[in-house]
Amino acid sequence: MSTERPLLQVRDLKVSYGVVPAVRGVDLSVNTGEVYGVVGPNGAGKTSLLSGIGGMVRATGTVELDGTDVSRWPAHRRGAAGMSFVSERRRVFPSLSVRENLAVAGWGLPKDEVDERIDRVLATFPRLEERMDVPPFRLSGGEQRMLSLGRVLVSGARVILFDELSLGLAPRIVAMLVDTILELAEAGHTIVLVEQYIGVLLKVAQDVMVMERGRAAFAGRVDDAAAWLNEHGYMGAAGKSERRIPAASPGGSR
């Protein structure tokens, strides 16, 4: 499901917080309908990478969306062009119901179109349909994750920057979200997925980057990534792909 030209192209991306570098010149490209996985220790710069791509933090380098240079665009303009960030913090509007949270993501669209998109979200996440009139603070962590992703889908995003799919969630919820990621890619969404659990990435990604200290220690196809991760001790002596990446030394940046 790829196109001749990558839908998302990133070149020499750098992010710093004051004098502290968090991302040190990272390149990546992702085709339509592909999942690009990013893994690495806490403090490696993974979240900063997504934030720099999405325009949430100041960055240098080049970010192209479908051939258009969006490097100088603010986050809201990148969002309007089809790039959305799903934070690990599950950002939702606590004073609005589940339905209202979904509807506000379609601001500016005709009501019929918004209703149609909400229906598609509810088909993907039937649990949300049971909770439509509930305020988000009463949702479980998994339900809030579904709501965050549902808002992105209502917005019509083509590129989804997904931070920490499995963080704090029960294995059965993670398995459901993994299936959802695969379905979204099959439907033509392009996904950059930051994830700590190696097994999740190896299941969904076509390409994988391993970040260490703000740089790409490895970047390549998923089969080569599995071999590299095993060779460099990320999967343990038994080569277990379900292992969580360990924390980095103090002082790193996410």
Would you mind describing this structure in some detail?
With 254 residues, the chain is an alpha/beta fold. The chain has two domains: 168 residues, Rossmann fold (3-Layer(aba) Sandwich); 65 residues, no CATH class. The chain contains nine helices and ten strands. The strands form two sheets. Strands 6-7-8-3-9-10 form a six-stranded mixed sheet, sandwiched between helices. A four-stranded antiparallel sheet has the order 2-1-4-5, with helices on one face. α3 runs parallel beside α6 and α4 packs antiparallel against α6. It is globular. The C terminus is likely disordered.
Short précis:
This protein is 35% helix and 24% strand. With 254 residues, it is an alpha/beta fold.
Largest sheet: 6 strands, mixed
Number of helix segments?
A: 9
CATH class of the largest domain: Alpha Beta
Radius of gyration: 18 Å
**Can you count the beta strands?**
10
Question: CATH-wise, what's the superfamily of the largest domain?
Answer: P-loop containing nucleotide triphosphate hydrolases
> According to CATH, what is the topology of the largest domain?
Rossmann fold
Residue runs with pLDDT of under 50 for 5 or more positions: 247-252
- Beta-strand level of the residues, as a percent range? 15-25%
Q: What number of domains?
A: 2
User: What spatial order of strands do you see in the largest sheet?
Assistant: 6-7-8-3-9-10
**Judging by the overall fold, what is the CATH architecture of the largest domain?**
3-Layer(aba) Sandwich
Q: Give the termini separation.
A: 31 Å
Q: What is the overall pLDDT average?
A: 88
Topology as a string of helices (H) and strands (E): EEEHEEHEHHHHEHEHEEH
Helix content: 25-40%
The coarse silhouette is globular
Helix/strand-derived category reads alpha/beta
